[in-house]
Amino acid sequence: MSYPVTYYCPHCGAVVEVEREGYLADKSVTPYPLEGWIYTDPHDSTNVSYESADGIRFVCGEIPSELDTDQATSGIRWTGDRSPADDVENPDITSPCGRPFYLSFVRFEDGTEIEPRPDTDRVRIASDTAGPSQPNGPTSPDGPGGFRR
């Protein structure tokens, strides 16, 4: 049996109502996807069940086109409300904001809850061949006869 469950956009606070099974356990709602989680589009609930995904990827305020389906059959409805929660990133921006956010379900592997892995993206500041091999300090004044250390 499905139930209406509400979530809010972490960017602007816009509230969305989703029709979904009650036994699915929520992990978090974040402005970024969790590494290793597979997300489904909320408008694909007739084709891909939420149970087969690790979460739902929303775009704040997006509704299915009238050619595809209507809100009643898509299982998603933007309420027009805004959450007063203190963790909304920017409560003063226009709502809905059109930015993506992610509802992640609790995942289990061999009976143990899976914790999200930290982001593995590394930032390379400079290549190995560019720039000095070590930091250089200030140059010292010349000694007698132009000698430098």
UniProtKB/TrEMBL annotation:
Indicate, by first and last residue, each region the UniProt record lists as having compositional bias (Polar residues): 130-139
| Basic and acidic residues bias locations | 110-125
| Xref: InterPro entries | DUF7969
Q: Which domain of life is it from?
A: Archaea
| TM spans (from-to) | none
**Record-annotated DUF7969 domain positions:** 1-147
Q: Where is this region: Disordered?
A: 69-95, 110-149
Query: How is this protein named in the record?
Result: DUF7969 domain-containing protein
Upper lineage is: Archaea, Methanobacteriati, Methanobacteriota, Stenosarchaea group, Halobacteria
